[in-house]
Amino acid sequence: MADIVTGPGSAAAKAARDRAEEEGLGLAEKRVASEEIFRGRMLHIFNDTVELPNGMPASREVIRHVGAVAVLPLTGDGQAVVERQFRYPVGKVITEIPAGKLNSSDEDRLEAAKRELREETGITADEWTDMGEFIPAAAYCDEKLTLYLARGLHYGPRDLDDDEFLNVETVPFGELVDDVMNGRIVDAKTQTAVLKAACLTGYFAKGSGDGR
Questions:
Q1: Domain spans in the chain, listed from the N-terminal domain onward
Q2: Are 70 and 136 in contact (CB under 8 A)?
Q3: CATH architecture of the domain with range 66-202
Q4: Angle CA(189)–CA(129)–CA(142) in degrees, nearest 5?
């Protein structure tokens, strides 16, 4: 059975934060109109007119995204599985954890994470920990990623898409943490997942490279 662990904090504290967010603390903007200006395979771009808290109108260019998942796989001996992939928008190869978009907005996120991990790396896992939600670009995009920690790994064949080219590598978890802290890992979801996993596994308290 998959072990799903929710994020940190008490249920009461989380409920209080959720209520504050819903109320907007007097900062909420109300959508008045929305015009779709681009529809692509992955991104949909809208020009929205909103009403500000003071009643004045404003324009917001917004990217709508179906959502995504990302997985940090850890082996029993403290190794992390990462990918090396050329990212065209930034023009270079970067190191990142396995990730992918949902097939639909209502797709089960854990099942999507299992699919992406298997397709990109050939790995399946016995234990899954939900490390919470991550919003990478709230200023202009509504994309939400769910981050997972996967342990109890099993290896099999990959099933990459025709347009996917990436290398799978294992690195000591402690080395990955160091790479995040010194700026060698620049991918935001990978930075967040690695530091969350370091907290969840007690890495900082132990002061070692053992990510178990």
A1: 12-64, 66-202
A2: no
A3: Alpha-Beta Complex (3.90)
A4: 40
CA–CA dist 21, 122 (Å, integer): 39
> Pairing relation of β-strands 123-134 and 145-155?
antiparallel
Q: Are 112 and 99 in contact (CB under 8 A)?
A: no
Which pTM value belongs to this model?
0.85
The whole-number average pLDDT for the span 91-97 is: 97
pLDDT digits (tens, 9 = 90+) for 187-202: 999 999 999 999 999 9
Task: Give per-residue burial for 131-167: e unless 16+ CB within 10 Å, then b.
Answer: bbebeeeeeebebbbbbbbbbebeeeeeeeeeeeebe
How far, in Å, CA of 7 to CA of 207, rounded?
22
Strand ranges across the sheet with 166-172 = 92-96, 79-87, 166-172
